[in-house]
Task: structure prediction
Amino acid sequence: MKKGIEVSIAASEAAKLARVEAIAAYPITPQTHIVEHLSDIVANGELDAVYVTVESEHSAMSACIGTSAAGARTFTSTSAQGLELMHEILFIASALRLPIVMAVANRALSAPLSIWNDHSDVMAARDCGWIQLFCENGQEVVDTIIMAFRIAEDHRVLLPVMVNLDGFQLSHVVEPIDFPDQKDVDKFLPDYKPLYTLHPDRPLTMGAYATPELYTEAKFAQEQAIINSLPVIKEILSEYSKKFKRKYNILETYNFEKSDTVFIAMGSVNENIMTAIDTLKKDKKSCGLVKVRLFRPFPDAELAALLEKKKNVIVIDRAMPAGGMNGPVYNEVAALLRRYNIKANLFNYIVGLGGRDVLPEDFISVYDEVVKAKKGKSKEKTNYKVIGVRA
Amino acid sequence: MPKPMEEYKWHELRIGCVIEEVGSAREYKTGGWRSMKPVWDESRCIKCGLCWLYCPDAAIYQKEDGFFTADLDYCKGCGICAHECWPKAIKMVEDEK
Amino acid sequence: MLPNIEIYAPNVVPKEEFVVSGHRACQGCAEVLALRHALKIFGKDTIIAMATGCMEIISTPLPTTAWTQPWIHVAFENAAAVASGIEAGLRILRKKGKIPDKDIHIVAIGGDGGTADIGLQALSGALERYHKFTYICVDNEAYMNTGIQRSSSTPYGASTTTSPAGKVSIGQQTWKKDMVKIAAAHNIPYVATACPSYPFDLIEKVKQAKMANGPSYLHFLSVCPTGWRIPSEAAIKYGRLAVETGIFPLYEIKDGKYRITYNPEPLRPVKDYLKGQGRFRHLTDEHIEYIQKRTNEHWEEIKKLASLK
Result:
């Protein structure tokens, strides 16, 4: 039965369903409702867990490494500056192969200070060795958090997982959400069985350093782990889909098969792109969408298979390239087109920075612009366009 | 026990580079750092064990007869034992290797 | 003459080593010696969270480790936060019956840089949250691991690679940060200073720290022959001189009550401590006089605090 609930509250309820044992978190807008509700359910005994009220996000991730290395199922959440403050420790959590799950309520990075949504926080943290999943609505947030623990703790994976939800746009809206039964979740997600823990009964050393003779091997091993997590993620998503009767995949498409021109996007912006596609349809224009749900590891072969015969591919980014040629999602897609020798025309639009509204009409204009675009050498100064900037 | 670093293949490292062979630093013989070594004059030694207690390298051990000596595999020759031995039973001498 | 019980050290100090031979500390490193003593007292049922620094780098080049207790290193500034997590994690797992109900002591260890500078915030947070753990600051009075750069724990007048003595500088221009006071300001049950030159005093304090009903903080003066530019065999001697001159008083603060654990009065002049050390070689009589004055004031302050109930 569906229940109307704020998505942040739903995210913490999902952590409860996952029987999280340890939380270490520091408040930051727009993540606050997640940690407040977690504090509540720990305080009133609904969730039997320790909540470490750390003094910063840096210590949040550090304490999470501690709880996880001790063998406890660990959850945390942050946004923007908080994610960047933990940046250093994100790399260590993944290198130590600790299955921490973190919900990131995506928010723009300062300066100027902005509490509103875009993806500049997570994109700055995209190469930290974490598995990264993106959610489009509240239902996905709940289901993804539960799946994230299964993925992270699978002994074929053992990596931390970041569950991204757009700040405010998603975190603060009330949506009807179907919560799975606790007993079904328990069956899907049994107790965490760590491979190594810090305990005197089996002493070991974690976090040794590597000289040049071994660093490459250590990082190569870690890279294999995230690459090899892809089939396991697919398997777990498909198992969840079957058990809970909601379909999940690493990539999802909309109005796709017959469309020559397709958008690629991540997160809540997908809903407005779908509305745009529906409007375009009424004008007999066919446009498709690929929703990238899994950004790390990047599902290049799967995406290539979808893009193979497309004419125009429009990549939506929600972070500035900062002097790079394009937005970060575009860069991945451009690399895969090259690798798989796909000839599609590729476009990059940067939208919705710092909470700027991006409406279905904007995507309709983008579509019109793209289908009219002439082939040949571009005279534009940059290889991307920023939607809605006042010139 | 671990083999030399340069012989490891990537898949031979444990997940997260965990080391299960605790105390395996013993493989590395720090005795090679030494230029001087301690020698005990057992006629002066009172077996107090302060040399053992003050050794940063845990390289001094008590023999069955109760006297102390250095494990030359590890003794770095810092000279603390000789300096702190109040009955003056330890001397640092040139180590001919 | 040492009291009888102290004469036969191996009879009163546990023999088992938890930081084993083969570690790569410099010759005469009194920091690893302090840990050697402390870890014997913490014993087998201990988990160590260590900050980046000398002790980490001398002990764990993959694929070997010098530690025999469970040990983790995460980063430079967060040993106290990692220790908080381990403590909290074990607490919930024990409560849920997922691990045996046995008392495991958590020990976080950092150098003076990792404690007084970059790790101060994480340490303050962990002490304030009242995790049951011991934090040890092994203070060798500079960033020795990276090549003797000054920290806020470097003493006044010391020449380091980033506070070099020069024509217009005496070296370190600020007074050593008082970490003991900062730790004590968190109203934790046990705070103490110790020095491996006084191993029995150190051992007694480790026992107290382990038994404390809450967080405890130990500040170990850790003589560094490399960074202080003294001969390696003099490491114990300089620790002793630091105490005998009143530069580094040995005391504890148990449940708020100060107690001097070893009174070296009459104090030796600070010159005895300063003169043989390369890092202080450039100091003039005037500087030494200033150091003497402040040292006396500090010693009197500790004495006064210790006489309070």
In short: Chain B touches chain C through 44 residues (CB under 8 Å).
